[in-house]
Specification:
Blueprint: H1 2-30, E1 56-60, E2 63-70, H2 77-95, E3 101-108, E4 146-147, H3 152-158, H4 168-176, H5 188-191, H6 203-208, E5 227-234, H7 252-263, E6 271-277, H8 302-310, E7 314-317, H9 323-338, E8 343-345, E9 356-359, E10 362-364, E11 370-373, E12 378-381, E13 394-398, H10 403-407
C-alpha cells in the first residue's frame, strides 16, 4: 500500500513538473510576441467547479476622467472666459451619442510659499466646487465633478433655469470652468489674501489624486478603469527653480513616476496630457514673468511641453485665433485615446472559457476584439472603438470562480 501511495505521489509530482515546463516553454514563446503574456486568457481551470456559479453580465461604457489644472492668477481672467465659452467644442466628441462615461473636474494651481500662511477657501489639490449658471455653488450632493451620469436638468429646472439648447451638465460645466482669479498681493502676510506668485502646475495633480483629497472632497472622481486626461491651462511655467536651486513644484519626471506608481508600468497607454498654454508669439504682458523675457531664458513653458510630449499629447495656444477649432481638435484626440484599449474591471475572478464580450450585440473574439489582464483582473477591449459611429454598448459576461472550487483545488488563481 505504501509503495502504491509513493508511486501515486511521484506521478503527481511529475505531472506538476510537466505543467511547469510547458508553461515556461509557452511563456518563452510569448516573450517575442507583441502582446504582453499577462494579457492573455484567464487562468486554466483543471476540472469542473464543485458548485455552479451564476453568470454575471456587465453593461459598461468606456470611461474617462478629465482633470483641468487651471491657473487662477489675475492674468488669467480672459483666458478662463475663453475656456468657458468654448468648452462645448471640446466636449462634443465625448458627449454626443458616444456612450462615453465622463467625469470632468477643475483644480487650481498652487503656491506653497505664498499660500503657507494664508487662509484659502480650498486646499491644495482640492477640486473646485461646481457652479450653477448664475455662478452660485451647486449643492454638495452633486460632488466636485461634472458627471455624464448625474441629473442636472431636474435640479436646474426646479431652480428656474432654462435648459434651452444646452443640457444641464454643459451649463454647469461652463460656469465651473470660471474658477475665479486672484491677484498677487505684496501684503498677503497681513491680509491673508492674494493669488499665486510662483505657480505650481504639476503638484496639484498628485495632491488631487492622492490621500487625503482622493478619499475626501475629491472622492468618486478618479476611477481605476477610466482613461485619465490632464489638461494644463496656464500662462506660466511648471517646476520653476528658485535662486538657490530649490523648487516646490514637482518636476515632470516626478509626476510621471507618480502616475507609474498608481496606474502601472503601462501608464502611458492610460493617460493623456494636453495643454492650453502661452506662446512665445504672445505679447510679453500676456505671459507670466516666468516666461516673459527672452533675455532670461525660454519664452514658452518648455517643462509643461516636455511633459505633454513625453506622454504623446498635444497643446494649443491660450490666445490662438482659431481657439474654438483647436479645442475641438483636443476633444477629438481625447475621444480617440479614451476609446483605444479601454478596460473593464471585473469584480470576481472568471472561470476559464466563460468570458464573453459583445460590442453593440456583436460577439468579439478573444485575441481579436479583447484580451484578459490577469494582473488587474480586467478585460481590455482591443477593438478600435473610435471607428464606431454612435453609441458604444459593451457587455461583458462571465462566470465567477466559486470559493468552493478554489478550496477544492480545482481552479487556480
Amino acid at each position: 500500500m505504501m509503495t502504491e501511495l509513493k508511486s501515486l505521489m511521484q506521478t503527481k509530482i511529475e505531472h506538476v513538473k510537466l505543467c511547469v515546463l510547458a508553461s515556461a516553454i509557452a511563456l518563452a514563446g510569448l516573450a517575442c510576441s507583441p502582446e504582453n503574456p499577462r494579457l492573455m486568457a484567464p487562468p486554466v481551470k483543471y476540472g469542473e467547479a464543485a458548485t455552479e456559479s451564476k453568470p454575471q453580465v456587465l453593461s459598461v461604457s468606456p470611461k474617462v476622467d478629465i482633470l483641468m489644472v487651471i491657473d487662477n492668477s489675475d492674468s488669467m481672467l480672459d483666458e478662463q472666459n475663453d475656456l468657458s465659452r468654448n468648452i462645448d467644442r471640446f466636449t462634443t466628441g465625448l458627449a454626443t451619442n458616444s456612450g462615453i462615461d465622463f467625469h470632468i473636474a477643475a483644480v487650481s494651481v498652487w503656491d506653497s510659499i505664498t499660500f503657507k500662511e494664508m487662509t484659502k477657501d480650498h486646499g491644495p489639490g482640492e477640486l473646485r466646487r461646481l457652479k450653477r449658471p448664475d455662478g452660485k455653488p451647486m449643492p454638495e450632493e452633486f460632488g466636485r465633478f461634472v458627471s455624464s451620469r448625474a441629473n442636472y436638468d431636474e435640479y436646474l429646472a426646479k431652480e428656474g433655469f432654462k435648459l434651452g439648447r444646452e443640457p444641464g451638465w454643459l451649463q454647469v460645466l461652463r460656469a465651473s470652468m470660471k474658477i475665479g482669479t486672484e491677484a498677487y498681493n505684496e501684503k498677503w502676510k497681513e491680509e491673508k489674501t492674494g493669488g499665486p506668485n510662483i505657480e505650481e502646475i504639476f503638484s496639484p495633480v498628485k495632491m488631487a489624486l492622492s490621500s487625503p483629497m482622493a478619499e475626501g472632497s475629491n472622492k468618486g472622481f478618479r476611477r481605476n478603469d477610466a482613461h485619465l486626461v490632464l489638461i494644463f491651462i496656464t500662462d506660466s511655467e511648471a517646476s520653476i527653480k528658485n535662486a538657490d536651486g530649490t523648487s516646490f513644484d514637482l518636476s515632470g519626471g516626478e509626476l510621471q513616476e507618480f502616475l507609474r506608481g498608481t496606474i502601472g508600468p503601462d501608464y502611458r497607454d492610460h493617460v493623456t496630457a494636453l495643454g492650453v498654454l502661452a506662446r512665445s508669439t504672445d505679447a510679453e504682458k500676456e505671459r507670466d514673468p516666468a516666461i516673459r523675457y527672452a533675455s532670461r531664458g525660454p519664452t514658452e513653458p518648455i517643462n509643461i511641453q516636455n511633459f505633454i510630449r513625453d506622454l504623446g499629447g498635444r497643446w494649443m495656444g491660450l490666445r490662438d485665433k482659431n481657439y474654438g477649432d483647436a479645442m475641438s481638435d483636443l476633444g477629438r484626440y481625447v475621444r480617440e485615446r479614451t476609446l483605444a484599449r479601454p478596460r473593464v474591471e471585473l469584480d470576481a475572478i472568471p472561470e476559464w472559457g466563460t468570458i464573453e464580450v459583445k460590442l453593440n450585440d456583436v460577439d468579439q473574439k478573444l485575441g481579436e476584439g479583447w484580451i484578459y489582464d490577469d494582473a488587474r483582473n480586467n478585460v481590455i477591449i482591443t477593438q478600435d472603438l473610435s471607428k464606431v459611429n454612435g453609441v458604444i454598448d459593451l457587455k461583458v459576461k462571465f462566470t465567477p470562480v466559486t470559493a468552493q472550487s478554489l478550496r477544492a483545488g480545482l481552479v487556480t488563481k
